[in-house]
Amino acid sequence: MSLIRKTAAELGALIAAGEVSAAEVAEAHLDRMAEVEPKVKAFLHIDRETTLEQARAVDDRLRAGEKLGPLAGVPIAHKDIFTTRDMPTTAASKILQGWHPPYDATVTRRLREAGLVILGKTNLDEFAMGSSTENSAYQLTHNPWDLTRVPGGSSGGSSAAVAAYEAPLSTGTDTGGSIRQPASVTGIVGMKPTYGGSSRYGLIAFASSLDTPGPFARNVLDAALLQEAFSGHDPMDSTSIDAPVPSVVEAARNGDVAGMRIGVVREFAGGEGAQPGVLARFNEAVELLESLGAKVVEVSCPSFASALPAYYLIAPSECSSNLARFDAMRYGLRVGDDGTRSAEEVMALTRAAGFGPEVKRRIMLGTYALSSGYYDAYYGQAQKVRTVIAREFEAAYHQVDVLISPTTPTTAFPIGERADDPMAMYLADLYTIPSNLTGNAAISVPCGLADEDGLPVGLQIMAPVLGDDRCYRVGAAVEKALESRWGGSLLAKAPAL
Amino acid sequence: MSAITRDEVAHLARLSRLALTDDELDHYATQLDAIIESVAKVAEVAAEDVPPSSHALPLTNVFRPDEVRQSLTPEQALSGAPAVEDDRFRVPRILGEEA
């Protein structure tokens, strides 16, 4: 089997055993990228020499007997919102075009230390604001299953790269579903760890109380190995949790759901606005879990429907504050500084030229929600709704170990279909947002193809804070049972690129 | 009835330091109006007696000892600056008129 089709765990084992070098593995993936990137366009920055240098350095470390983790030498693609000191970081925004960060994000630093080799930086919706990666200021990324469709978003470059076998692993960030939704629509695994379980240091901020770095992979075990490699307390992030990382790798290897209590979220399984093929695959997954010995019950969380409007007040409010740092003074773009204009005028001209339409919309929406006279009705009320949703989750987790739902209401939609309709775009995150508001762990695993369009459907598994291992345990059980039914991975059914 | 007027959007753009054109103001006024009408549904949740959550986890402020540690050099800190003079960020004038 060619190197690009292998799992990350297999590649790590081959490299550790000296059967193949990290440089050879990197080269195979760089070749694949050269072949399919013209169609997929998952990457914003590729630098073959830098990648090969990193790989050769890992080979040297291994030859010198250095003890590295199970993913040493395995290549990875990073969402271009994590700072990297040897590659540009743009957040897919013109305002950061050509910026070379002077430091590494904790996630990228830890993965370098563990011996992972960076293949490049992947495309995203500008500042991670979007659900289709169409809001990138640079390029459209195409879904490897159907090049006329979106790869999801905001981490759409990372999902497409893994689904197109350009990278075995990638990183993403999930603020309202930006890992789980793209994973779902490209037929791969994507995990939003517990908020605070993975460090935000060096992650360009969108909504700080929600932003969560997490892994993409083609299978549950690989995702767990990656999460374990970058997780853990970070003194550089004041919201980082100082507690042991849940044993996610062990859970991914275990995959036993016998006796587990699983709750179906009634409000997200009823079908309103959902595609029939998505619901059909979801219902089959429910039956499958029962057949594996889980006890499935229905759980009602009536306020989850209000999570979407609450999120679209909270996230823009935080974004309007966070993006104030792009002031044209210390880094990034500066426009109109002709010696006659004031700093304030230069700032306004730069931000108008450097930010795209969705970013401007959210900055203004957040500014509105936080302004005096509206604060209580909008931001204040949204924060209360956040509490109500947290209480419903808490009550649900008294009854069950995990909650499940489809990851998204529909499969991948056509490029351009929702680009001019912000509200239609926002609905893509309907089922994923509640877990962001409460910091819960949640994963998306492939559960089949929709009958109408033959495109991937994802199953979302949600667990309480620091219950990440439960997501992996249930995800592994579903994956194992479905892959034996399919005779291989879901991705094996994707058309050749 | 519209939730937000074009004049209000112009005010928000000023507060947000976004120099928008007249066409953009018209465009955003329509879109923000639809979005605000939709997000206003948060009011439907009965939450009078509920405390607000600003955060997902019950975290309090974190402190560390006030010790000198390694940080960016001036060269690194200035490496992405649009304009630099004498090891400092050079910025456009910040006062109203010639001082």
From TrEMBL, chain B:
Catalytic activity, as annotated: L-glutamyl-tRNA(Gln) + L-glutamine + ATP + H2O = L-glutaminyl-tRNA(Gln) + L-glutamate + ADP + phosphate + H(+); L-aspartyl-tRNA(Asn) + L-glutamine + ATP + H2O = L-asparaginyl-tRNA(Asn) + L-glutamate + ADP + phosphate + 2 H(+)
Function: Allows the formation of correctly charged Asn-tRNA(Asn) or Gln-tRNA(Gln) through the transamidation of misacylated Asp-tRNA(Asn) or Glu-tRNA(Gln) in organisms which lack either or both of asparaginyl-tRNA or glutaminyl-tRNA synthetases. The reaction takes place in the presence of glutamine and ATP through an activated phospho-Asp-tRNA(Asn) or phospho-Glu-tRNA(Gln).
SUPFAM superfamilies: Glu-tRNAGln amidotransferase C subunit
HAMAP family membership: GatC
Family: Belongs to the GatC family.
Protein name: Aspartyl/glutamyl-tRNA(Asn/Gln) amidotransferase subunit C
Domain of life: Bacteria
Protein keywords: ATP-binding, Ligase, Nucleotide-binding, Protein biosynthesis
E.C. no: 6.3.5.-
Class of enzymatic activity (EC top level): ligase
Signal peptide segment: none
